[in-house]
Design brief:
alpha/beta; TIM Barrel; 5-stranded antiparallel beta sheet; 16 helices; 38% helix; Metal-dep_hydrolase_composite; HutI; Imidazolonepropionase
Length: 410
């Protein structure tokens, strides 16, 4: 599968460049050659081959990329399941002090080491299911020190784990209890205190905001993202997840690298995103778990020319799953995407959504040697046979990091 100068959109999302009888040659953690086996062997003729891994007819893809997770957090929220079954909505739970705010309490109470152990376990699971690069958002601290605590854990994971971790600051995930009815004051704290210190410490590459009714308005979101852009952060936005707020339009206006969720995005907003080159990160496991009537309109997005990526949205409330393979199935069944579009959305387009397309997301010479081998004969088999883990082997930067269903110590 090859990448290109920009994220895939329209019909090109289904063009994956599948190669029967293919091979990949790796050296120093990078791809040296990729294509038909005989061609690859010709290209590396004369080089000493230290190890050969026979795929034995199995499907091989680039390493999967999860471009939207809330990896580092304390506790879990399984008690909310009963509320959801009684019809209590996501925003109603949040307004009652639950949801994100309950996870904030648990995250604040946890030590940095406790957060690391919990997040590492989830990252191990993500790796076992084929994810080789993961974005991790903060946003469960909502004080400077607790946001820094989350971001330090993400940095530690990046330094110690086989999976690459890309950090996003999301102090504007909710208005904390101590700022109730004073959202503008909290916005000022994010802008004047949190963003400059996080930038000084180099703990996050992107800034994200939850632009939603009852959370942050378009005006508040614009102010935070403009301040972040001035400091040199890349921009992301949780946009139009539950109500149409103009978040997609704001993403286009500010040139965000991605806009995420988008269940309620208007045609005008999506067309603006297409013109601005903003990647739409769709999260079908979240809409599935929240039991909403309508899912993100990925089919329409693709037809409009919007570049679509997919992600788990792993978090303790609305999407407590680490499985990108589950996301594959849900994207086919609920978002009406083809298997080819799905793999594009989880590789090269996901790489663009986190600013890494020059390094990962496709099997091209010079890119990181991140590959997944599956117990599957073809691509369609992955979403078709759902509810199990198809991964046989994972290679990260040229090194085998998963084999026989187990993580190899890094």
């Amino acid at each position: 599968m090859r990448g290109g100068p920009g994220p895939r959109s329209g019909a090109s999302m289904a063009e994956i460049g599948a190669v029967a009888g293919g091979a990949v040659a790796i050296g120093d953690g990078l791809i040296l050659a990729a294509g038909r086996e005989e061609d690859v062997r010709d290209q590396i003729a004369g080089r000493a081959i230290l190890q050969e891994l026979d795929a034995q007819g199995r499907l091989v893809t680039p390493g999967l990329i999860d471009p939207h997770t809330h990896l580092v957090h304390g506790g879990s929220r399984e008690h909310e399941l009963a509320l959801k079954l009684r019809g209590v909505t996501y925003l109603e739970i949040l307004a009652q002090g639950g949801g994100i705010l309950s996870t904030v309490e648990m995250t604040r109470a946890a030590t940095e080491d406790e957060l690391y152990v919990k997040a590492k376990k989830s990252l191990d699971t993500m790796l076992l299911y084929g994810a080789t690069t993961v974005e991790a958002k903060s946003g469960y601290g909502l004080t400077l020190e607790d946001e820094l605590k989350q971001l330090r854990v993400a940095k530690r994971l990046q330094e110690t784990h086989a999976v690459d971790v890309v950090s996003t600051f999301m102090g504007a995930h909710a208005v904390p209890t101590e700022y109730k009815e004073r959202a503008d004051a909290y916005v000022s704290t994010v802008i004047d205190t949190m963003l400059p210190e996080i930038k000084r410490l180099g703990l996050a590459e992107f800034c994200d905001v939850f632009c939603e009714h009852g959370v942050f308005t378009v005006e508040q979101s614009r102010a935070i993202l403009r301040a972040a852009r001035t400091l040199g952060f890349g921009l992301k936005i949780h946009a139009d997840e539950i109500e149409s707020m103009g978040g997609a339009e704001l993403a286009a206006e500010l040139g965000c690298i991605s806009a995420e969720h988008l269940l309620a995005a208007t045609d005008e907003g999506l067309n603006a995103m297409a013109r601005a080159g903003v990647v739409a990160v769709c999260l079908p496991a979240t809409s599935f778990n929240l039991r909403v009537a309508n899912h993100a309109r990925a089919r329409a997005m693709i037809e409009m020319g919007v570049s679509v990526a997919l992600s788990t949205d792993y978090n303790p409330g609305s999407s407590p799953t680490e499985s990108l393979q589950l996301v594959m199935t849900l994207a086919c069944l609920h978002l009406r995407m083809t298997p080819e579009e799905v793999i594009t959305a989880l590789t090269i387009n996901a790489a663009h959504a986190i600013g890494r397309a020059d390094q990962i997301g496709s099997l091209e010479v010079g890119k990181q040697a991140d590959l997944v081998l599956y117990h599957a004969p073809n691509l369609a088999y992955l979403p078709y046979h759902f509810g199990i883990n198809h991964v046989d082997t994972v290679v990260k930067k040229g090194r085998i990091v998963v084999t026989d269903g187990k993580v190899v110590p890094f």
